[in-house]
Write a structure and sequence with these properties.
By secondary structure, this protein is α/β, with parallel strands linked by helices. The protein has two domains: about 5-235, 3-Layer(aba) Sandwich (Rossmann fold); about 240-290, no CATH class. The protein has helices at about 5-15, 60-65, 90, 110-120, 130-135, 150-165, 180-195, 210-215, 230-235, 250-255, 285-290, and strands spanning about 20-30, 35-45, 50, 75-80, 80-85, 95-100, 170-175, 200-205, 215-220, 225-230, 240-245, 265, 270-275. The chain has a six-stranded mixed β-sheet, with helices on both faces. The longest helix has 16 residues, at about 180-195. It is globular. The chain binds adenosine-5'-triphosphate and magnesium ion. Magnesium ion binds next to helix 2.
Length: about 290
């Protein structure tokens, strides 16, 4: 079969896959340490999917493996139904990604940076620059040098760069990093609007609360291993964690906490027991667990 016919067959097979990202036993080691540990991931098309875990859990490494920026040691993967690395070119033509943080030429303007990135893509990418800038709310600053951009503006420019390829899949590594509450709100709305258009957004985060607000489904990763995954409503339904606090005046503390939204408070012999709803729990880093 000729290459063109093979591509056509691959495209048809890919379109039949219900998964935007699928991995089986995906593993990446750095020496003795396993950064991505036999990960089986299934990200349905057309949803916002959170890859949630503390610092060092292997979120960025998984993204780098998916994009072919580093090689897997074991396992298989597909993006938009295309087996990669075999059909990486076909897959990546419809993937936009930000890894770690977006990097640009600081001495050039936002628009000039997008022009350079568009030149490396299909011819239609150039025609998407203005709508991408408009979409992320940067049109009025597009002729400023990127050195003058705030962190939030760089994140927006990163998303605009993703849009140049009219992506079916966006992979965003910690897109809320460095954003103030208003910036986080805007980013969340942008992500949800992409999903409303039928695109899939995979984002990594260490913020449970943020993933809960933004995503439809989640995989929870700890030390490279996915420990749970599924629709967010199923995973978080009824989940709570109980924290015991030593306290010399538990009754007084209980009165102070009465009516607060911190969770269910019970007075115990030592102090207080507070049942926190999952959405209120920050993800601790392994280091903070180890040192506590
Ligand atoms: N190039 C590398 N060489 C050696 N070890 C690495 C390399 N990149 C990552 N690691 C290790 O792999 C593990 C996972 O790192 P990774 O950056 O993927 O975590 P992360 O979940 O993205 O963390 P963060 O929330 O801090 O961004 C860490 O223990 C890290 O030290
Ligand atoms: Mg990371």
């Amino acid at each position: 079969m000729s290459g063109a016919v093979l591509d056509k067959v691959s495209r048809r097979k890919a379109a039949d896959s219900p998964w935007a990202v699928e991995t089986h036993g995906l593993t990446k080691r750095f020496g003795e340490s396993v950064a991505v540990n036999s990960v089986d991931l299934r990200v349905p098309r057309g949803c916002a999917f959170g890859y949630l875990g503390p610092n060092g859990a292997g979120k960025t490494t998984l993204i780098r493996v998916l994009l072919g920026l580093t090689r897997a040691d074991a396992g298989t993967m597909s993006l938009l139904g295309y087996a990669v690395p075999r059909h990486r070119d076909l897959a990546l033509a419809r993937v936009g990604a930000i890894v770690d943080e977006p990097r640009f030429h600081g001495h050039l303007t936002g628009r000039q940076n997008l022009q350079i990135l568009a030149a490396a893509r299909e011819p239609a990418a150039r025609g998407r620059i203005e709508s991408a800038l408009d979409r992320v709310g940067l049109s009025h600053r597009a002729d400023d040098r990127v050195t003058k951009y705030s962190m939030g503006m760089r994140q927006r420019l990163g998303v605009a760069a993703c849009l140049l390829g009219d992506p079916q899949l966006l992979i965003l590594d910690e897109p809320m990093n460095g954003l103030d509450p208003a910036g986080m709100h805007d980013m969340r709305e942008m992500i949800q609007s992409f999903v409303a258009e039928g695109r899939t957004v995979v984002l990594s985060s260490h913020l449970l609360d943020e993933v809960e607000r933004t995503c439809d489904a989640v995989a929870i990763v700890d030390r490279g291993k996915v420990i749970r995954q599924g629709p967010i409503t199923e995973l978080l339904a009824g989940t709570s964690i109980e924290v015991e606090i030593d306290c010399s005046t538990p009754e007084a503390a209980n009165t102070l906490l009465a009516g607060s939204s911190h969770g269910q408070v019970t007075v115990t012999e030592q102090g207080l027991a507070i049942a926190l709803a999952a959405g209120r729990i920050a993800m601790p880093s392994p280091r903070s667990i180890e040192s506590s």
